[in-house]
Amino acid sequence: MTMRDIRVGVRRLFRLAVPRPDTAHRDADSELEALITERVEHLIARGASPDEARIRALERVGAPISDARAQLRHSAVRREKRIQAVERLDELLQDVRFTVRTLRRSPGFALTAILVTALGIGANTAAFSVADFVLLRPLPFADPGRLVKIWESPPGGYRLEPSAPNYRDWKAMATSFEAMGAYHPTAFNLTGRGEPQRLAGIAVTADLLPVLGVHAAFGRVFTDGEEGSVILSHALWQKSFGADRGVLGGTIILDGLPHVVIGVMPPDFRFPNRDIALWTPMSATDLASTQRGDNWFEVIGRLKRGITLKQAQSEMRLIARQLERAYPEDNANVGASVFALQSETNGQSRLLLLALCGAALCVLLLACANLAGLLIARSLARRREFDVRVALGAGRARLVRQLVTESLVISVCGGALGIVIAVVAVPLLASLVPATLPIAAVPSVDTRVLLFAALTTALTGLCIGVFPAVRATGQTNLSALREGSRAGGGQRARLRSALVVCEVALTVVLLVSGGLLMRALNRLHEVDPGFRPENVLTMRTALPIPPYDTTERRVQFYSRVLASVRALPGVESAAYVTGLPMAMTGGIWPVALAGQPRVRTGANSAALRFATPGYFSALRIPVRRGRDIEETDGADAPFVAVVSESFARKYFPGDDPLGKRFQFAQGERTVVGVVGDVRTRGLEQGAEPQVYLPSRQVADGAIIGYVPKDLVIRTAATISPTAIVPAVRRIVLEVDPLQPISSVRSMEEVVSERTASRVMQVRVIGAFAVLAFFLAAVGIHGLLAYTVSQRAHEFSVRMALGAQPGAIVGLVMRQGLGLAALGVLPGLGLAYGAGRAMSGLLAGISPGDATTFTAACGLCVIMTLAGSLLPVWRAVSVEPALAFRSE
Amino acid sequence: MALLKGTLDVLVLKALSWGPMHGFEIARWLEERSSGHLVIGDAALLQALHRMEERQLVAADWGITKNERRARYYQMTATGRAHLRTESRALADHVKALTSVLSARTATR
What we know:
Number of strands of chain A: 22
Low-confidence stretches of chain B: none
Largest sheet of chain A: 8 strands, mixed
Oligomer: heterodimer
CATH superfamily of chain B: Winged helix-like DNA-binding domain superfamily/Winged helix DNA-binding domain
CATH topology of chain B: Arc Repressor Mutant, subunit A
């Protein structure tokens, strides 16, 4: 057989010579030389002289020989490069095809592996998309890194909205800022376009929108000194104005007054939060307010280029000190603090999200460990195949690549499915997006998130593949082909044991974290809010000023509505109040006892609420001493107050509070009653002492931000509070047909809203823990099943020699429990660390909570037992005679 | 005579359809079949072969000639065979069209 008979390309198949550039050059040169030589011989055979033949052959080359050589070298190199690229691609496709074929042969394994990867990647993608949306992504404003929020900081370490005069002084004095703007929340009744609507709005100074660096989608933003105009949010424009551009320049009726629409904002502009429907210019009187103790502005600044947050902070501290000296009565002890706008997310939602991400990462690691274990088991089962392939000349690198391809195919399928899971899961996580941020309610799965998912997928594939691949091929040798099936498993069993130990540790972390968070939530739900939210319906009537500018007009409205509502069947009591507990969390006013100077400090203050008679019975807030607010507490009667127990304790310690007098909310009040404390700031936080004032005892036009607008109705336990909503709507519309009704909710909803994000987070982490539990159990099962199959021979010998089944059970169980114990110990340590890191979420539960840790350990024992069940059964059902039959 | 673009590839493939050949064999085959009309420069022929190998129309490997010399043998691949089939048909049509134009006897039909 001549070389000519070897099938072309067989050399390549065997990778006998991998051409490199210099070989390609040599190839090209000798090919040309061979051709010339052939022609010379041919010509000589035809009778030419050798010299003549050489000359004629060189002529036939068609170009000077050196040029021809250079050209051919070039084309040969190019050819080799291309061919190699094609071959690499072919190999990849071949690997993929091969992988798909092998995976098809074991669909159970393939499906499990893909599903486990999908859950891991899906969990992480979903958690990342929410965390990225809330914590990492730059705010949708121009150059958001330079935007800051500036607060007054009274002693006691909290932040307070600045007053108008302080804002004006800051703006005039500070040099760290390119510009500064202010806003305050407001709300309007939109009438004249179908049903009256209640809309949340923001009154802004003309420089606020330019400070944020935003422009109207069309139309313009406000100019200095402008009044009576309005800018619509994109959502409102679409919903209520049919996305009609003709609205520009038109007039809409807000609170009974015409406003000219001058612009519509872009769809992604939500400032200061997603609920805002429109923006109006701040009125000149608001801006010119001289009340230095009236804290109701919010201030945004844009740092000058090159000025750091620290520099701005120290400048503002200096300015605050100057203002303190200039206005000692109002500004004593009042500092100023500067925060990056990006860091407005409160600590708790940050912690909630980070904990969620940590848990998701645990799940992914667990999934990886589990899959790595499965793949090692698989590669052991396929060891003979590998040995055969190596014997036939397959390179070790090729085998490794083949195995990595397999794990990549699994992880890519899993990743694709995981993205689907994430897309479905992300909207469910929406309650983890704080409503106070200038971002949408639901994060979208976009390129950024997909990139993350792709990266996670690639890493997962490499993680689960490289490890078993290197292990599986590292020890291949020809002698293995001749060995028995039990040979050489020790090393890999040790590796798999390590993986199982990791799985157990991660499971412990998830079980303990989930348990701690669940206990914390339970503890919160056991906290007494100070009122009974069951069977209470709440809604808001807007009472715009005008026409409700006098106290008397409002009182008439309350009386008529309340009288009719109380007459409804099933209604036990009804009342109006300023802000529902937990819905309105602030409303803090300074308190001065008779005969003492008024000092503005965080320490001497109380929460102010105006209420009609019947409020305490409607919410079942216990009246401890004295009396409720009564109809007789009118404008001409002595000004009275009902205070909370903590107020009485704080300001009149050891004294009878009834009959005591104090300065509060622009008047002197006498205590006539003491009621129980209410957790106005939610179940997790302490609340300021509370003061309730009769809704009639306020001067016309004074303290208008505290006008009672919230209707509270307690129904009999036998009927659902929502059942009476239509009847109440009718009553309100009868009393005032222009009165929009908004925020119809049961009081239970108001309360549960405060913990909604936690409930969601605990559910998700709980689900992760359950998943971890099963994955780890499967991991234990897999490992024990393997060792039992390896030791079947040994067991049968033992049994044949008279060992009791109990002894065999002991052998297998000892291995399982040993592994579990090895995993549990570091797991508990890690879990304690995790607990400490999220102690802000634990509502006082210790990170080392014994109950949780014991329960987690108990669950691990159950998990180990569950994972050992089948292997143990298989071990004891080994036939004693097996030893004498096999091999 | 200069060749039309792409024609050389088809002619080489036609040569190879008779079996694997090395560069000189291809050149001689073309010369003899065209009764000496087709004379292609050796450098151009080899370059064409490299290009065709790159496109996987042919595959190549070193072998030994009848004269006991090393030579690079070319063999047509399946892709090459398909290429030959379609391209030779197109070429024939093209030649027919040229011939009918050049053999026109009247200004109009």
